[in-house]
Amino acid sequence: MNNSIILGIESSCDDTSAAVIRGNKILSNIAANQEIHNDYGGVVPELASRAHQQNIIPVVEKSVSQANIQQKDISAVGFTRGPGLLGSLLVGTSFAKSLAMSLGVPLIEVNHLQAHILAHFIEDANIMPPKFPFLCLTVSGGHTMIVLVKDYFDMEIIGRTTDDAAGEAFDKIGKIFGLDYPAGPIIDKLAKNGNENSFQFNKPRLENYDYSFSGIKTSVLYFIQKEIKKNPDFIRENIDDLCASVQRSIVEILMDKLEKASKDLNINEVAIAGGVSANSALRAAMQSNAEKLGWKIYIPKFEYTTDNAAMIAMVAQLKFQRGEFADLSVSATARYDIEESFKKP
């Protein structure tokens, strides 16, 4: 890994983030969150893009300052091209283009999902990075997939959600329970005090490695409606057990497919990535499978699980070494599969 200094910019959803990397060592990783969305129970795209416009300059300035470098030291500018909210992506894309042009340095486009996976190769993400080939369960509010990672730039999606993502299921079920947005971390916290075997919810039966989470959401909704008719205080009186039971069900759905893929492909190098990889029950299930199935597991540091620019900078560094640069005509794209990002124009 060389010592080029790369600035990474991430603006795919509601976090504005900038990071500086030298080699594979993160020098700074700054993020500005948008709490305004809490009032709406989800991210409002127009509000998100406006907030990015307000946040991006101070976030980039702080990132450069904290890294103890000057703008003239930057070798290239990496940015999230997609997938994500188009309005949010446009802010980061436009800023990255302008900055790269003003500095006279290369512009590097990054696939957000690929970045979640390759965050494992940041110097302090793990004790050791995964060995190729490995399986990566990439799970967040917008995406849930199992990716066969053969190399930095050779990945194959072998399973994905056919409807809701796991993080989306957590948030929608949290809304049924009357919890604030985002509900995932709240459910995780409340579940620690509950009995995960208190309630049983329906699980999907898909043949391959694909996921489905709409069924468990509907199962929870009907169950709650039935119980509230008998006891209006049912949710309040059972919230810890409800959260623990829902969390167990979602984690079991995730792990069942991952175990099947590991067995079928005979791959014991297994990683998780994305915002839901911060979930304590999912991390515990990975640890359990490491002991039970002999997996070598890779669980990223918390700061590299959510949307962050450090992972964007990591991919940009790898692309910089390969000379893979974007021109100024590049445009943001809301839908951008991992495999599509490897296709040559």
Sequence-ordered SSE layout with sheet pairings:
Layout (H helix, E strand, L loop, with lengths): L4 E6 L5 E7 L2 E8 L12 H22 L9 E7 L3 H18 L3 E5 H7 L15 E6 L4 E8 L2 E7 L5 H11 L7 H8 L22 H17 L3 H32 L3 E5 L6 H14 L2 E3 L10 H14 L15 H4 L4
Parallel strand pairs: 1-4, 4-5, 6-9, 9-10
Antiparallel strand pairs: 1-2, 2-3, 6-7, 7-8
Helix pairs in contact: 1-2, 3-9, 4-6, 4-7, 5-7, 6-7, 7-8
Account of the protein in words:
The chain is α/β, with parallel strands linked by helices and 345 residues long. It is 43% helix and 18% strand. It has helices spanning 45-66, 86-103, 112-118, 166-176, 184-191, 214-230, 234-265, 280-293, 309-322, 338-341; strands spanning 5-10, 16-22, 25-32, 76-82, 107-111, 134-139, 144-151, 154-160, 269-273, 296-298. Helix 8 (280-293) links the parallel strand 9 and strand 10. Helix 1 (45-66) runs parallel beside helix 2 (86-103) and helix 7 runs parallel beside helix 8. The protein is globular, with a radius of gyration of 20 Å. It starts with a strand and ends with a helix. The model has no long low-confidence stretch (mean pLDDT 93).
